[in-house]
Each structure stands twice: as C-alpha cells, then as structure tokens.
Amino acid sequence: MSIKISFKKSILGKISSNLVLFVDEKFNIKLIRKYISSSEFSFISDLLKTSDLKKKLLIFELSSKKKIVLISIKKSMNNYEIENLGAELHGMINNAKSTEYFVNSDSIISSNKNFIGHFLHGLKLKSYNFRKYKTKNEKKLININVFGKKNNTSVKDQLKFRSLEEGTFYARDLVSEPGNVLHPDEYVKRIKSLKKYGLKINIYDQKKLKKLGMNALLGVGQGSIRGSYLVTMEWKGLKNNSKPLAFIGKGVCFDTGGYSLKPAKFMEDMTYDMAGSAAVVGLMMNLALRKAKINVIGVVGLVENMVSGNAQRPGDIVKSYSGKTIEILNTDAEGRLVLADAITFTEKKYKPKFIIDLATLTGAIIVSLGSEYAGLFSNDEKLSKELIDAGKKVEEKLWRMPLHENFDKLINSKNADMQNINYVGGAGSTTAAQFLQRFILNKTPWAHLDIAGMAFSKYGGALNSGGATGYGVRLLNQLIEDYYE
C-alpha cells in the first residue's frame, strides 16, 4: 500500500467521502458540529454514549461510502505523541477497503504549530512495508486530502520530514534485503549511488585495508568469497573546517558465527546484523537531502562472516589497525573486531568532535533491555545526556550501561593484548563495550549504541509495521538538530 498526500485550502460543499476530525480528550463534538450535517451529529452523539472513550481514535460508519473518524487530542502534545496518532490512523485505513480520506485541519485544537506535519510524518513512517520479492505486489493507493487553514507546513519542515522518511526507509530497505542480495560487494555499490546527493564516498577494498593494517576487520571477512570493505561518507555542510561529527556502523551482511557456529534456529535473522551500518547510511542520506549545516563523517565496515577453509579460527591472533593484538577466542564475537579498526581509523584520520558507533553487537543487551531500549555505553557524560534526551523526543530510547576499568581483566589475554570475549561469564554487553573503548586512543568523546534489540521487530512498533525499524536514523538526526547544527 502506498500513500499520496494532497493539501487543499478548502473543500466546497459537504464531504461525501471519509472524513477525519480532531476532538478534545473527552470526545466533545460540539466544536465540530459545523463540519458535519445535523443527522451525522445526532448519529455520532448517540453512539458516543456507549463508546470506549479511553481510545484515541473512534470510527463511525455512516454508510458504505462514508466513515467519520474522530481523533482525540490534547491542547499540549509533544511531537512523538502526534506522530503516534498519525500511525494509529494508518493502522485503521490500512485494513479498510476505502481509498480516500479527507482530514480537516481546522478542527485541530493543539497548540503545537506543526501538528499536521508531525501527524502525517507518523502516518508515513508507519506505512512502510518491504514487498520487493512478492510476485503479487499489492498496488493499493490511499489518497489523504488535508484541507483547512491549519494545514500549513513550511517548505523547510516539509523537506525535513521527507528527508527523515527517505533516510529511515533506505535504512529499513537495506536491513530487509536477504544476504544473497545485499552482500558486501552489492552494499558498496548502493552506497556509491548516494554520491548524487552530494556525499563524498571513499571505498577501501581488501588490498587497501591490508596495506593500512586493518587485520581485525579483514579477519572477520576472510572466510567469504565476497570482498571486505571500509567505506567513508563525508557530508560537508559548513564552509569552515570545523571538526566533524563521526558515526560508525557495523556492517556484517550475514553472520553465521564463523567456526563458532550459531544455532540453525533463527540464523536467518542474521541478515540484519548490518543494521548499525544501515542506520549510518540512512542518516548520511537524510543529512545530504536536507542540506544539514554541519560537517559529518559516516564510516561503515562491510564484511560477511562465513565458514570455509580460509575462515578465521578460534585461537587466531590478529594485529589491529591500532597496533594492539587480539586473540580470537570466539569467531561469533566478530562485530567488535570490525568496529575496532573502524574506530581507530576514524579517530586518527578525521579527529572528530565525537564518535558514536552503532551495532547489533550482543544478545546480552536483549536479555538486559529487551526491545524497549538500546544500550548506551560512553566515556563522556555530556554526550550521553544529549543522546538520551534526543532519544526521548523521537521514542528511540537509550539506557546507559556501565563501563569500568575492573571489567578490563575479563578481556585481558595471556597470549595477546586482549581477547575478543569474556570466558568467565556475565557482563557480555559491557565487556564488548569495554573492548571497543580500548580503540579510542586520544580521549575522543565516544558512545557505543548496542541496538541488537531495536533494529528488527517481529511484531511492529508505534511507527513501524514489523520488520526492520531503521532505529538510529531519527535519534541521531535529533541529536544533531538539537545540539550541533
């Protein structure tokens, strides 16, 4: 199903199609009396007496051709609450046979000046679906006609919403692709296509990575017939040479676990082990589309963790880009190896204001936080607070988890500088983050977001209908808007 949104100043005559009106929390319909006929008013008044007024949205079927939808709103509402209402409306129209709806913006009582913009933004985000490989593709088109004096969304805000939607949808598309389609070689091609938006793309292939000494990243991908890559995306929105913000994403396009093989059950879900990289790519696309006034670097490490005669073995020791050596005790703890080289490279080459990495890194974070929060680990109080506050605004929530030098002993190795897992047990997410922190060499403010529980939803969420969520694009865009742009 696709959505087409049209804006009209006014509608002549009474509306014979489906009508969406906004009312107060108590479903007081006196204020909307002028928008409907006397018979419709009486009909709805009677039905309201036996309706569940705790709901936010009520539907009244007047005939086979016309429904009236009442949406309960408060005078004071934050952006996310409004977006949720738009998503709820989508849930209703998605299951209905009707294909045309008229939204009366004059009935809005909220003090939020951009109510209609956020309302439609929520509706659009919820409308995403991935049906690329369905042979019988549904071609249902829903027309949403917004009319009235309060439907004005500035050109700037329209661009902002459209850019966020496109960036989020692009991230969701990447995560939704199967591993036989979106392997590292194909992923690189897709990132290269983003040059048309003004991003500067640099691709480091295996030959270049070997020359640089990125053996931690290369070790993960050496069992695959596909290439391994580090890709950088630069957006220069300022004319000055101010320090850029840096975002790094784990891009393991498929993760078998290597010789530390994953169980067969649910291994198919490992197509989304590149969701951290997808969030970074979607964010960079969004920033370029809206011409963000900020300098930003996006870096993704793209590999495939496979089993073969050339694959990395448990017990191998590799020398990372930082010069530190790592003993590989478990080949399924591969994401941190990819990120280790990417973090040091980004810090050394770009000297950024901060580094934020995103990764579906540990199952332990799902045990801790489920699918409600991503885990936040950081060496910086200010950056942590900014991320948490930004996450609350877009409902991409974060919960700060501990880092402490006492955890270091759990990843110290007898044979190398460190080992890639903690064999003692416990603190799986924390020791993974503690491992990553060792690759910040110059005290750059850094945050690690473990998004394993947030990148994919089997049941759907408030602003997604199940599947890839695009988690991180809206969160990081909000961070940039609020504090750095």
Descriptive account of the structure:
The protein is of the alpha/beta class and 485 residues long. The protein has helices at 38-48, 79-94, 115-126, 155-176, 184-192, 206-212, 215-221, 275-289, 335-350, 364-369, 381-394, 428-437, 473-483; strands spanning 2-8, 18-23, 57-61, 67-72, 100-104, 141-147, 200-204, 229-236, 245-255, 295-305, 317-319, 325-327, 354-359, 374-378, 398-400, 418-419, 446-450, 456-457, 467-468. It folds into two domains: 2-153, Leucine Aminopeptidase, subunit E, domain 1; 160-483, 3-Layer(aba) Sandwich (Aminopeptidase), CATH 3.40.630.10. The strands form four sheets. An eight-stranded mixed sheet has the order 7-8-10-9-13-17-14-15, sandwiched between helices. It has a six-stranded mixed sheet with strand order 1-6-5-2-4-3, covered by helices on one side. A hairpin with a 5-residue loop joins strand 3 (57-61) and strand 4. Helix 2 (79-94) crosses helix 3 (115-126), helix 3 runs parallel beside helix 4 and helix 8 (275-289) packs across helix 13 (473-483). The protein is elongated, with a radius of gyration of 25 Å. The two termini are 35 Å apart. The model has no long low-confidence stretch (mean pLDDT 95).
The count of β-strands is: 19
- The neighbouring-strand order within the major sheet is 7-8-10-9-13-17-14-15
- Percent helix, as a range, is 25-40%
State which percent range the strand residues make up: 15-25%
Largest sheet: 8 strands, mixed
Average of pLDDT: 95
Fourth-tier CATH superfamily name of the largest domain: Zn peptidases
Return the CATH topology of the largest domain. Answer: Aminopeptidase
Tell me the overall shape.
Answer: elongated
Unreliable stretches, pLDDT < 50, 5 or more residues?
Answer: none
For the record, the count of structural domains works out to: 2
